[in-house]
Amino acid sequence: xxxxxxxxxxxxxxxxxxxxxxxxxxxxxxxxxxxxxxxxxxxxxxxxxxxxxxxxxxxxxxxxxxxxxxxxxxxxxxxxxxxxxxxxxxxxxxxxxxxxxxxxxxxxxxxxxxxxxxxxxxxxxxxxxxxxxxxxxxxxxxxxxxxxxxxxxxxxxxxxxxxxxxxxxxxxxxxxxxxxxxxxxxxxxxxxxxxxxxxxxxxxxxxxxxxxxxxxxxxxxxxxxxxxxxxxxxxxxxxxxxxxxxxxxxxxxxxxxxxxxxxxxxxxxxxxxxxxxxxxxxxxxxxxxxxxxxxxxxxxxxxxxxxxx
Length: 309
Hints:
Layout: H1 7-17, E1 22-26, E2 38-45, H2 48-61, E3 65-68, E4 74-76, E5 81-88, E6 93-96, E7 103-107, H3 112-120, E8 124-125, H4 137-143, E9 146-147, E10 150-151, E11 156-163, E12 167-172, H5 184-187, E13 192-200, E14 202-203, H6 206-223, H7 242-248, E15 255-256, E16 259-261, E17 269-271, H8 277-295, E18 304-306
Parallel strand pairs: 2-5, 3-5, 4-18
Antiparallel strand pairs: 1-2, 6-7, 7-13, 8-14, 9-10, 11-12, 11-13, 15-16, 16-17
């Protein structure tokens, strides 16, 4: 398979990043669905400052890149990703539990569910809905992640953004123009990188917050399947649920290759036996066709497809 890079850009990256640069890295090891071919090159970064400095350098060099956190909510092609992939492991978290308006600041690679669980230990609420969300804070800010009638749009105070033209800036929540599972960042990819964010919290009793989180966790176990998946495959159409439509189309348990539409929740496609991205894509196409043929509704992907298709 041909690499995106000629020998000259790869040599430039080797010179710029030395031993930190990995080459020909299998992306299946960095996605929750455990699928995806090789990336030409990869960097794993551990602080927001490191991400900022690296991205500025890449922009200056004219090198394209993809930034990934937990690797949920993405489907990487079997052919892999041409160019550079950055894995975001910037995970610092700071909780302000003493001001009149409590909040939590965290770097964009921090796990959102982990942030919620740290918050409750300080006697704070407001992020109960996020306790079962598997992705990172940066991904949540980018895509307006949500669960249990809550979402990032309801908690975000501001985010620290690295903008291609403006440099490092702070954006209030209004700047993101949030809608259901989307934002201005998602609608205009490649212009910005999320470095960190501050979320508003509320004072509460730890026992009450923990009880609500336990209820959400129990509900998740009962309604969402275990195993390797990307999370919800499709957005819910207005006034309906994608899982209900797929189930009503008779597709629960349908299998192509190593991937299966879950018996537990039909909006989850589970990698049971070494599924490929092609298997998943074929099952996506089948679900969209069957639902459209029977109900006249075109299911829209919630996940994003990355790489060479």
